[in-house]
Design brief:
Elements lengths: L1 H15 L3 H14 L4 H13 L3 H14 L4 H13 L3 H14 L4 H13 L3 H14 L4 H13 L3 H14 L4 H13 L3 H14 L4 H10 L7 H10 L6 H17 L3 H19 L3 H19 L13 E7 L5 H9 L4 E3 L5 H9 L5 H17 L6 E4 L8 H7 L4 E6 L2 H9 L14 H21 L5 E4 H6 L1 H12 L45 H7 L1
Helix pairs in contact: 1-2, 2-3, 3-4, 3-5, 4-5, 5-6, 5-7, 6-7, 7-8, 7-9, 8-9, 9-10, 10-11, 11-12, 11-13, 12-13, 13-15, 14-15, 15-16, 17-23, 19-20, 22-23
Length: 540
C-alpha cells in the first residue's frame, strides 16, 4: 500500500508539472494491479483530458458512472471532457448532475458558470451564484465569476464591488488587484488603477500583464528601476513566449514615452514576432471565411424573408470596420446623447455567425441568433438606441441588416498606414485579433477586409454610411451632424464634449477617448517610418 501511495503521489506531481505522458504510463500500470479502484480510473480520465484526449476520457468516465452513478467528481470530469470537444449542452448537464448529487460542490457550480460565460449567458451565472453569496462561503472564485458576469452586463460598479470582495477574501492573490486595477482603468480612475497594478506587481514581480497595464496609465521613464528589471527579464530564458512578448510590448511603450524610438521599435518587433510564432495565424483561413460568407449570403440570405419581431423596439447602431479606425471615438460621441446607450464591443453576433456557416439548419440558427441578440441587448438598457461597436462585425453586414432591418450601420475608415501601424503597436486580448502580430499578416487582413467591404457595397449600396476618422477630427461638427441624421436623432454640440463622459470603456482606446477631440493621434507612424516599409509600400 505504501508503494501504491508513493506512485499515486508521483503521478499527481507529474500531472501538475504537465508531464502527461509519464503520468498516464504510471497510472495505467497502477490500474492493471488495482482494477477495482474507481478512483484511479477517474484520475486516468483527468490526465487524458489534460492531454486533450477528450473522447478517450469520456469513454472511461461513462463506464465509471455506469458502475457508480452517484460520484459527483466523475460528472465534473465528464463535463470538462465534453467542453473539450465543444459538447456544451452535455457539459452543462454533467455539471448540473454533479451539483444535484453533491450540492456542496463548488467545483461543479463554478465550472457550470464558466461554461455560461463561454456561451455569453451572464444572467445565468448570476442566477447560479446568488445562493452561494447568501451562504457566505468566502470563496474568491465565486466573486471573480460574478464580476465577469457583471462586466458582460456592463454593470461595472457591481463588478468592482465583487473584485473588492475577492481582495478581502484573499489579499495575497495578485490577480485580484490586477482585475480591480483594470476596473479603475476602464472607469478613467487612473490613480487608483496605478496603485492596484503596482500592488499586483509587488505580490508577483513576474506579473507581466500588470506591468503592461501599468504603462498604459503611468509614463515610466526608461531609466526607472522597473524598466531596468524588465530589460533584464527580456533577456531571460525562464519565461514562456507569451510572457516574453508582453515584456517586449511593455518595454516598447516605455522607450516610446522616453522618445528612444529605435529601441522602442526593436522591442515592439520582438514582441510581435513572439506572438506571431505562438498564434501561427493563417491568412487562408480568413480568405476562406470571406468566400463562405459571400456564398451563403448570395445563395440563402439575400432573398430570405424573415418575420418581423414586433416586441423589439430598440434601434441598434452597429459601428464597425477595421480595428483602430475611430469606432470608440464615434461611440463616445453618440453616448453623450441621452437616448443612446453605449454597449461597447459585444461579441455575440460575430461569434454566433461564425458558428453557423457550416450548419444545414441555417435559417433556424439565424432566428436563434436574432432572439439571443435581442434578449442580450434588451437586458442592458431601457434606452431606445444602443450601440454595438465590435469592429469585426464588418464580416457580417448583410447578415446583420437581414436580421435587424431597423439597425443602423456605421462603417469607420482611416488612413490605412495609420490603421495597420496602430494595430501592429497593440497587444490585444488573447484570441481577439490573431493576425495583428506581423506587418505581412496585417496587410493581408486589410486586403481581405477591403474585399468583403467591396462585396457589401455592391450588394447593399446606400444601406450604411462610411465615416472617415481624419474627416471627423478635422470637422467634427459637420461629420457628427451627418452621423446623427443617419441614426435619426438630433445632433447637439454637447455630444462633442467626450472628455466629460466618464462611462467605463473596455477597448484599446480606453485612454485617448478620455481626452477632447484632437488630431494628436494622426500620422504617428511617421516616427517609425524606416521600420515599416512593408506597410507603407502597400498603401502609399
Amino acid at each position: 500500500m505504501k508503494n501504491y501511495d508513493a506512485i499515486l503521489l508521483d503521478v499527481k506531481k507529474l500531472f501538475i508539472n504537465k508531464e502527461y505522458d509519464l503520468a498516464l504510463k504510471k497510472i495505467s500500470k497502477l490500474i492493471k494491479k488495482n482494477k477495482a479502484n474507481l478512483d484511479l480510473l477517474n484520475y486516468q480520465a483527468i490526465i487524458l483530458t489534460g492531454m486533450h484526449r477528450y473522447r478517450d476520457a469520456i469513454i472511461i468516465l461513462e463506464k465509471l458512472i455506469k458502475a457508480e452513478p452517484n460520484r459527483a467528481d466523475s460528472y465534473i470530469n465528464l463535463g470538462n471532457a465534453y467542453r473539450g470537444i465543444n459538447r456544451i449542452d452535455d457539459a452543462i448537464n454533467a455539471y448540473k448532475t454533479a451539483y444535484k448529487i453533491d450540492n456542496t460542490s463548488h467545483e461543479a457550480k463554478l465550472n457550470l458558470c464558466s461554461v455560461y460565460l463561454e456561451i455569453d449567458m451572464p444572467d445565468a451565472v448570476i442566477q447560479e451564484l446568488n445562493p452561494l453569496f447568501n451562504l457566505n462561503h468566502g470563496n474568491e472564485h465565486i466573486h471573480l465569476l460574478a464580476a465577469e458576469a457583471m462586466i458582460r452586463n456592463l454593470k461595472f460598479e457591481e463588478a468592482t464591488a465583487h473584485h473588492q470582495s475577492a481582495i478581502k477574501i484573499n489579499p495575497y492573490n495578485p490577480l485580484n488587484f490586477y482585475l480591480l486595477g483594470a476596473d479603475y482603468m476602464w472607469a478613467g480612475k487612473f490613480e487608483e488603477a496605478k496603485k492596484n497594478f503596482r500592488h499586483a506587481i509587488s505580490l508577483d514581480p513576474f506579473y507581466f500583464d500588470a506591468f503592461n497595464a501599468l504603462v498604459k496609465v503611468e509614463k515610466i521613464p526608461s531609466h526607472d528601476e522597473l524598466a531596468k528589471k524588465l530589460v533584464l527579464y527580456s533577456c531571460s530564458d525562464k519565461f514562456n513566449q507569451k510572457q516574453k512578448a508582453t515584456i517586449n510590448f511593455t518595454l516598447s511603450k516605455i522607450f516610446e514615452h522616453s522618445k528612444e524610438f529605435d529601441l522602442a521599435f526593436d522591442y515592439l518587433h520582438k514582441g510581435n514576432k513572439l506572438m506571431e510564432d505562438v498564434l501561427k495565424y493563417e491568412d487562408i483561413d480568413t480568405k476562406n471565411l470571406i468566400e463562405k460568407i459571400k456564398e451563403i449570403y448570395l445563395k440563402k440570405i439575400k432573398n430570405w424573408e424573415i418575420e418581423a419581431t414586433e416586441s423589439f423596439s430598440k434601434k441598434i447602431i452597429f459601428i464597425l470596420g477595421m480595428p483602430r479606425t475611430g469606432s470608440t471615438l464615434i461611440e463616445q460621441i453618440l453616448a453623450n446623447h441621452e437616448s443612446i446607450f453605449a454597449a461597447g464591443e459585444l461579441t455575440v453576433a460575430h461569434e454566433s455567425f461564425k458558428k453557423i456557416l457550416s450548419e444545414d439548419q441555417i435559417f433556424d440558427n439565424l432566428k436563434k441568433i436574432k432572439n439571443h441578440y435581442h434578449a442580450r441587448v434588451n437586458r442592458l438598457t431601457e434606452k431606445d438606441f444602443i450601440t454595438d461597436k465590435l469592429p469585426l462585425n464588418f464580416f457580417w453586414i448583410g447578415f446583420i441588416l437581414k436580421l435587424f432591418p431597423n439597425a443602423k450601420v456605421i462603417h469607420t475608415t482611416r488612413d490605412p498606414i495609420d490603421v495597420c501601424f496602430s494595430i501592429y503597436k497593440t497587444k490585444f486580448a488573447d484570441g481577439a485579433l490573431d493576425f495583428s502580430y506581423s506587418q505581412k499578416n496585417i496587410i493581408n487582413f486589410y486586403k481581405n477586409y477591403q474585399d468583403i467591404m467591396k462585396f457589401w457595397k455592391k450588394e447593399l449600396s446606400n444601406t450604411f454610411i462610411d465615416v472617415n476618422y481624419e474627416s471627423l477630427i478635422q470637422n467634427p461638427e459637420k461629420v457628427c451632424s451627418t452621423i446623427f441624421d443617419f441614426v435619426g436623432i438630433n445632433f447637439t454640440q454637447e455630444c462633442l464634449n467626450i472628455q466629460n463622459n466618464n462611462r467605463p470603456i473596455r477597448t484599446a482606446s480606453e485612454i485617448q477617448v478620455r481626452e477632447s477631440i484632437s488630431n494628436d493621434h494622426q500620422k504617428k507612424w511617421k516616427t517609425y517610418e524606416p521600420f515599416i516599409a512593408e506597410i507603407i509600400n502597400n498603401f502609399s
